[in-house]
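Quick one before lunch.
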Amino acid sequence: MPQQLTDIPGPPLPSEGHHLAAIAAAGGMHTFQLDLHRRYGDLARFRLPHSTVVSVADPVLLEATVRINERPADLFRFLDPFFESGNLQVLPEPEYVPWRRVVLPALGDHAKHAAMFPRMAAAVEQLADRWAASGEPVALQHELNNLALRMVCSYALGDAFDSAKLAARIVDAFQFLLDHFLHEARGVEPPTPPGERRRRVEQAQWTLREAVTEVIARREAGHGRADSADLVGALVAAGWPVGRIRDTVLGTMLGGHHTSGVATSWALHLVSLHPDVERRLHAELDAVLDGRTRPEHGDLRRLRYLEMTLNESMRLYPPGPYAARESTTDIVVGDHLVPAGTTILHPIWAVHTNPRVWPEPDRFDPERFAPPAVAARHRLAFLPFGIGPRHCSGAGLAMTQTKLMLAVLAHRFRFRLVPGHVVTPVERFVLCAEDDIRMVVTPR
Ligand code: HEM
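Model of the protoporphyrin IX containing FE complex:
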């Protein structure tokens, strides 16, 4: 007979009836979860205003939650204003499944990644050239997030994004909106003066919607670049309404913006702190690139140590530090019955640093991702892209982009932190550094 939800260990309930103050005091949900599992073990319980939360930090226990296909609306409400035809993060399963069936092949098709690769590689090289010419220290996360956003836009919007003027307008509008909503979500006053806010939000939304509407019109007229994802074309062909198509492009920009850039920046940071890893990475890049400045798409699979290094970086600093689900039926997790309607957290950072799964979890060691070590571990021990039917739909593209950025930049430069600069991980929708990662960049 399984034990009840209330038997799952967790912190005592404060008088307010929830743990929001404790989460804020811990520095955010990501650090609260680390502490929660340190104190109460791999299965722990706490309370948010609208639901009880069960957090599962053990790969074997996670299996019971893998198939859940709903997210809790309350946790993602802050994204509601981003979308015009319903928050894509929390679409109910019957609406979500057919939509995802169209989106996944458009984003995940290797042939399209290969076709788009030269364009993405040229963008990374342009950034590297600019750094080399300037000689100034760089704010890695700012620079790489911007680059990743441009790559995703080019992939999703195709030739509409080739116009530099339009591209700049799209990027500016998106960054303004995201920044605005993230400030609001954290309860922090946005930087735009209150009188101007409404007008600027509407203007940014209009700019983004107009750009996508133009792409839809071009696809309907049979135009478009062959190397783009044709995400828009696929959604048009599947008969999705215009609002949902525009939201899908925005949702893809949202998913692809901070994540790949942040992942690359953490990898460059960790490599810079570990000269032995740096030497091995440089040796692999020198051998595979063999005098070239950038890889071909087909070279990526030969960059094995680079992939191990990237995975170990995403273990230590997962760009998405947790994911959330809402159970629609009663499930049994370990010895406990978790009733329908409970919020289930996948605390990615806590799983990745669980000492029962990862010995000496704080040590950076790419060898953890050598094939025999991977084969010996549970498949859910490493989950940077989440798990189950709502896992990251851009995972394949993300790995392509991130490996490319890391390959070009690590091959060309040696990175060292600006003396005195302190790197503090914080959660701002993704796990990033509070004051960026400021690096002195020296050509090799
Ligand atoms: C290293 C880079 C990336 C990481 C670590 C990452 C991680 C994640 C995680 C943890 C989630 C939540 C999954 C869940 O709930 O289980 C997610 C969702 C998502 N990601 Fe990524 N992501 C990355 C890059 C990208 C890129 C490049 C794109 C777009 C091309 C993208 C698009 C999305 C979308 C659209 C979702 C929502 C999926 C859905 O609800 O259908 N991500 N990502």
